[in-house]
Amino acid sequence: MRFAKYHALGNDYLVLNPADFPTWQEPSVAQIRVICHRNFGIGSDGILWGPLESQNCDFRLRIFNPDGSEAEKSGNGLRIFSRYLWDQGLIQKPNFTLETSGGAVRSEIRDAARLITIDMGQVNFSSARIPVMGPERDVINECMQILDRDFVFSAATIGNPHCVITLSEVSESIARHYGPQIEVHPNFPKKTNVQFLQVLDRANLRIEIWERGAGYTLASGSSSSAAAAVAHRLGLVDSNVTVHMPGGNLAIEIAPNYSIRMTGSVTRVAEGIIHPELFEVEV
Question: Is the pTM of this model over 0.90?
Answer without folding.
Answer: yes
